[in-house]
From TrEMBL:
<dbReference type="GO" id="GO:0008745">
    <property type="term" value="F:N-acetylmuramoyl-L-alanine amidase activity"/>
</dbReference>
<dbReference type="GO" id="GO:0030288">
    <property type="term" value="C:outer membrane-bounded periplasmic space"/>
</dbReference>
<dbReference type="InterPro" id="IPR050695">
    <property type="entry name" value="N-acetylmuramoyl_amidase_3"/>
</dbReference>
<keyword id="KW-0378">Hydrolase</keyword>
<dbReference type="GO" id="GO:0009253">
    <property type="term" value="P:peptidoglycan catabolic process"/>
</dbReference>
<feature type="domain" description="MurNAc-LAA">
    <location>
        <begin position="159"/>
        <end position="278"/>
    </location>
</feature>
<dbReference type="Pfam" id="PF01520">
    <property type="entry name" value="Amidase_3"/>
</dbReference>
<protein>
    <submittedName>
        <fullName>N-acetylmuramoyl-L-alanine amidase</fullName>
    </submittedName>
</protein>
<dbReference type="InterPro" id="IPR002508">
    <property type="entry name" value="MurNAc-LAA_cat"/>
</dbReference>
Length: 284
């Protein structure tokens, strides 16, 4: 008895055999290979600093704007050092607060009020003639020439805060100044620390590196912090380990003076200082 003839559909299926399964297998292999050949995405990066990312949260920064009151400091081009230091202090305070830090000034003045956000119009520069200290629960005016007693008053607040907070959170002390020389050709800023210390604080090193990389140290300063005997940094009166005095620029140089008057320049400097504070925290 002859077997029945296969139908056309059955014959086609027999000829193909396992071919569909084989094709499906290679199709899957090909897709997997394509997935493997796709470039690996880069590692996630940290977002830029902003109000939503307060990387200085919990940090206390004591800002000491130089001069004020009866002491105008150096004067060049119709501008006093005190006008510039107090506005720089207000700018820096705004920048630090945006990063979550708490800021306290060593002096009281109406010129230290909060500023508009970066890029918005600012009020004219004003002389801080009303600047004064709060000592023994009473206000004391700043005398001309900044006597040693006045410098120690500036450090006194830092000492009190250090005794209260040293076991709770990081504390920094920054005294802000502008330099002036007899020759106008010299320009640039300088980072100073107290010469009675055996080595510069980490904050001084972090600032000096950024000053040099950004060109703020000029062509005579170099990139190293400089030891100076400064009353406001005297460890006997100011025990805060991370204390520095910043000569922000040299206003006897026309270009430096023009930069110091610029809000954009001040905000740039504030960002560099903020970065230096963050860099110091990584080493603590």
């Amino acid at each position: 008895m002859t077997p029945p003839r296969p139908t056309k559909r059955r014959a086609r299926r027999e000829r193909l055999g396992d071919l569909p399964l084989v094709l499906a297998f290679f199709l899957v292999i090909g897709l997997v290979g394509q997935c493997r050949r796709r470039p690996t995405p880069p590692h996630p990066t940290l977002p830029p600093a902003s109000d939503k990312h307060p990387f200085l949260k919990g940090v206390l920064v004591v800002l000491d704007p130089g001069h004020g009151g009866a002491d105008s400091g150096a004067q060049r081009g119709g501008m006093s050092e005190a006008q510039l230091t107090y506005r720089m202090a207000a700018t820096l305070a705004s920048s630090l607060q945006q990063a979550g830090a708490e800021v306290i000034f060593t002096v009281h003045s109406s010129t230290l009020t909060p500023l508009p956000k970066e890029g918005q119009p600012e009020p004219p520069l004003q002389a801080p003639r009303d600047a004064r200290f709060l000592s023994d629960n009473k206000f004391v005016g700043i005398r001309h020439g900044e006597s040693p007693e006045d410098l120690y008053r500036r450090a006194q607040l830092a000492a009190q805060l250090w005794q209260q907070q040293q076991t709770r959170r990081p504390i920094f002390f920054l005294s802000l100044h502008y330099d002036a020389l007899s020759a106008s050709k010299w320009r640039g800023g300088l980072i100073c620390y107290d010469a009675r210390l055996s080595r510069p604080p980490q904050l001084a090193r972090e600032l000096a590196v950024r000053w040099k990389k950004s060109g703020l140290s000029g062509h005579r300063r170099g990139g190293e912090p400089k030891p100076r005997e400064l009353g406001v940094l005297n460890p006997l009166h100011n025990p805060v380990p991370q204390s520095v005095l910043i000569e922000l620029a040299t206003i006897s140089n026309p270009k430096d003076l023009q930069a110091a008057r610029s809000p954009a320049w001040r905000w740039k400097v504030a960002r560099l200082i903020r970065e230096a504070l963050a860099g110091t925290l990584k080493h603590q």
